[in-house]
Amino acid sequence: MKNIILFASGGGSNAQRIMEYFGQRDGYRVRGLFTNNPNAGAIAVADSHDVPSVIFTREELNDGTLLREVKQYDPHIIVLAGFLWKFPADIIKEYPHKVINIHPALLPNYGGKGMYGMNVHRAVHENKDKESGITIHYVNEHYDEGNVILQKAIAVEECLSPEEVALKVLSLEHEHFPEVIEQLLNKEV
Ligand code: GAR
């Protein structure tokens, strides 16, 4: 059984997609949902899939408590699905090439601190970029800078508003993220 753990800070639509996808497949399970946000919609999503949630503080993230907790879930992959805090170095070190993130833009464009969610889509739209998209990448100790696993693009020219860009990008995320997770889990020795 391959164990997946998710980190999410917000609404949790990616978390939901991932739980639905692996709920229909043998040999995988989402073992836990980790969040920094007690009000995250992702918690209700986890409840509805009988996945336990762990809510943690910034202190726990940085003082080793979270690493100890994560180890108890024996993850084969750690997936950041809309997680908005910087991910701690001790967990990255413990799980090399097993922590991945999804970013709602074509990195290295629109990455770094403060570049998340609608901030990204507003900037893309204001700059009248031709394309935007998604980047799924390994997580290293710098924001949005780990090796790219997959990028997919949408045409921004056809979008009338940042909200429209957001919708198109999110639907790309839902389409590709679960499959990439599955592929990475199967690549493992
Ligand atoms: C997603 O668009 C994801 O790419 C983004 O947060 C959203 C979460 O949506 N992540 C980042 O911006 C990370 N820098 P969701 O809660 O509906 O899955």
Please outline the helices and strands:
Elements: E1 2-7, H1 13-23, E2 28-35, H2 41-48, E3 53-55, H3 58-62, H4 65-72, E4 77-80, H5 89-94, E5 99-103, H6 117-126, E6 131-138, E7 148-155, H7 162-187
Parallel strand pairs: 1-2, 1-4, 2-3, 4-5
Antiparallel strand pairs: 5-6, 6-7
The structure holds glycinamide ribonucleotide.
What is shown here, in short?
The chain is α/β, with parallel strands linked by helices and 189 residues long. It contains seven helices and seven strands, in the order βαβαβααβαβαββα.
What does this structure look like?
The protein is globular, with a radius of gyration of 16 Å. It has a domain at 1-96: 3-Layer(aba) Sandwich (Rossmann fold), CATH 3.40.50.170. Helices cover 39% and strands 22% of the residues. It is built from seven helices and seven strands. It has helices spanning 13-23, 41-48, 58-62, 65-72, 89-94, 117-126, 162-187, and strands spanning 2-7, 28-35, 53-55, 77-80, 99-103, 131-138, 148-155. The chain has a seven-stranded mixed β-sheet, with helices on one face. The protein starts with a strand and ends with a helix. Helix 1 packs parallel to helix 7 (162-187). The chain has 189 residues and is an alpha/beta fold. Glycinamide ribonucleotide binds at residues 8, 10-15, 81-82, 102-104, 116-117, 170, 173.
